[in-house]
Amino acid sequence: MNIDFTHKMAAHCENGTTANLLNFHGIKLSEPLVFGIGAGCFFSYTPFIRVNNLPVISFRHWPGVIFRRTTSGLGVQVETMKFSSPAKSMDELDKLIEKGIPVGLLVGVFNLPYFPPEYRFHFNAHNLVVIGKQNDLYYISDPVMENIETLNGKELQRVRFAKGTYPPKGRMYWIRETPQTVDIEKAISVGIKKNCSYMLRIPVPLFGVKGIRYIAGRLKNWDSRFGDYNAALRLGQFIRMLEEIGTGGAGFRFIYAAFLQEAATILNKPELKVLSSEMTGIGDRWRNFAAMAAKNLRNRGVPATPYPHLSHLLLQIADQEEKLFRNLDGIFK
Amino acid sequence: MNILYLLLIKEIPKVFLDLSQFLKLISVMNIKEVPQDNAGFLKEGKVRDVCYAVDDEGNYTRVLSVGWDPKNEAIRQAWEQVGQKAEKIRQKVLSGKLSPLAFHMVKGLMSKSLLAQYTGYSRWKIRKHMKPSVFNTLSDEQLGKYAEALNIPVEILKKI
Predict the structure, then answer these.
(1) Of A215 and B71, which is predicted with more confidence?
(2) Does residue B112 sit in the same domain as residue B128?
(3) N or C: which end of chain A has fewer CB within 10 A?
(4) The total number of structural domains that make up chain B
(5) Whether residue B94 is found in the same domain as residue B146
């Protein structure tokens, strides 16, 4: 059984699977639109959650959030499932594929054979869509890859039941029903409002703009607290989260700017275009931060850029982002 | 990448800049174009990342990028750290202080707790299995569990 499914690459895996699944069901949205409606632009610093023994710094929400928010914003009905039994999870997947429904899966990347070896860490928040099965071979539309890939049953089961931080537990999701007409304009403004609220109004200092300020305060003393080498490891993790994990550049800031630009045309609000170019400016700032921070990674971490300087740069970024999201919030009041 | 930007990167003196100079440097840094720094990562350029960038008219477009130096540097650093750790453990295995399991655990980027989740053994038991004297008494079934978790054959697990 092979489903006629249009595979389109995307910067970020979850946007990609969501956009491709919606496209299959007749709702054509670009990746930035999916990201914006899903209110995906975020910042969080969670020192109590660790990946590779280093605290998680994230520019996105938990996996699954963008899919859930985008579909509910558009009034699309979805179903999700998670399993404790691997055998049962594969049976359920087979049944859906047999019916001709493409199914999104949450997987760990470490054992994905087609993934570049350099990217394979124990990172359990990758998304892909299964679009067909022949004998024991599953056809995979992975938004990060340029072509359709294949996995055999054993490999697929292994990645679906990866262990570690946030285990996927065979999670799968698919679209059950789409409405006759979709109110994209409303979905966009709701998405933007939500996004502003997550960036500005979470009353915990680890999330949103407050999170950036918090990590700026901590980062100032990293070298004296952990020593040059370990401080550099933390910075390395920061840069990887900012650039590597499918962010489309600068921790999703460029995608969000692209979204604001599209939203300006759809909602006919030229002021969003101005904010879009401001967002691009913020993205450039994040890139500057990455470039300056990366200099500290060589020489066993002997700092070439002093940590207080990097901290100051982060504070500036936080101020800019706060201003932008306050303005954005004002427009949609 | 912008040539001006490259020059600026090289210009940075060994002595620390003071904050005002640093901010001045940042304000002229300009990374407008999508960086294409291939470091042999991403299957020698076979896999490319989608990046979003502004074109000449100010509209956002999608561009495929093969990499960017700071990012490549961060990935390189992460793998270098794994390599160093593995080498240290390898020496310990060779001198008979640890069992090959310890080496393969580090090679598979695992920790004891992650291995415990995959195999169902307790962390305490795994720590015992790291001793060569205990490791040598393990049955094929027990070794099989580790091999399954680490995704390697049992024969490889037994040696380094």
Answers:
(1) A215
(2) yes
(3) C
(4) 3
(5) yes
From CA A1, how far away is CA A199, in angstroms rounded?
Answer: 44
Helix (H, G, I), strand (E, B) or coil at A61: coil
Q: Where in chain A is the domain with CATH 3.90.70.10?
A: 13-37+77-177
Residues A17, A18, A24, A28: what is their CA dihedral angle, to the nearest 10 degrees? -130
Do residues A11 and A244 touch, judged by C-beta distance below 8 A?
A: no
* B115 and B57 in a common domain: no
Name the residue in chain A with its Cα closest to that of B6. A291
Q: Is A120 helix (H, G, I), strand (E, B) or coil?
A: coil
Class of domain A13-37+77-177: alpha beta
> Are B70 and A116 inside 8 Å of each other by CB?
no
Mind telling me how many Å the CA of A122 is from chain B's nearest CA? 7
Q: Which domain holds residue B43?
A: 35-67
B42 touches B23 (CB < 8 A): no
**pLDDT, tens only, A279-306:** 888 888 888 888 888 888 877 767 777 8
Asked whether residue B86 falls in the same domain as residue B10, the answer is no
pLDDT tens digits along A142-197: 888 888 888 888 888 888 888 887 888 888 999 888 888 888 888 898 889 989 99
